[in-house]
Amino acid sequence: MAGSTPLRQYLYQPPEHGLQAELYLPKRADFQGVLYDTLTDAFDAANIRSWLADAHTRAHIVRLLDRHWPELAGNMDRIAARLSSGIQGYTMYEVDGVYAGADGVVSERTQIVRLMFVPGLDALAEGIALDPDPARNRARVRDEAQILLRNYGADAAFFKQRNADALTRGAIPAELLDLCRALEDWVEEVGLVLFGYIAGRVCLAIQDRNLRPEEEIWVTTNWGFTLNALRFAGNGGTVP
């Protein structure tokens, strides 16, 4: 149209429900190399699989997880084989931390790595039929996934058992079985990347390099997380 102006526009995207996690480490020089290498390699699923395939690494991860998450420790190969991508990104910031340690109150500079994991619900919706209309189907998958993931805070085995019990009781409609299974697989994959790879690789480096250990390394998880993206559409249209 004559006299029109190119439209440079951000567009609101449907919400993505998933997990926000944070890894807490002391801000020390001897931790920076392993942290950088771990996060850089985590973008590629092949790097994660390669690291987990090493015999020394595997023995460490089994010891790390087996006591309280044996399902993850015993199925690393199966879960790793499903990984189609690594992490999508991370943010890092520092705070002044104070906590009660074995020798009293400790104050130190704390480094926090924040990661966001979303299951890619629109892609999942292509293989899950809840509505014959594609747009309504994607919306239904997003809504049902939010309910299934809401207030989730345990391991993948608990998530599977909770879903199985609810399906048996009829609390979850049978038509959601495929969505439940897809989300259960995704929860396992997130657990492997977050604990088996990122946190596990940092812990192993502290041991192998004989670095001064922390009493505890914290990983926090928020399963009430929703990502609302405003995506730049470029010159996708015109306005008068």
Describe this structure in words.
The chain is an alpha+beta fold. The chain has one domain. 46% of the residues lie in helices and 27% in strands. It is built from nine helices and six strands, in the order ββαααααββααααββ. It has helices at residues 29-41, 45-53, 55-65, 70-73, 76-82, 121-125, 134-149, 156-169, 177-208; strands at residues 5-12, 16-26, 90-101, 104-117, 218-227, 230-239. The strands form two sheets. The protein has a four-stranded antiparallel β-sheet. A two-stranded antiparallel ribbon has the order 1-6. Helix 1 (29-41) runs antiparallel to helix 9 (177-208), helix 2 runs antiparallel to helix 5 (76-82) and helix 8 (156-169) runs antiparallel to helix 9 (177-208).
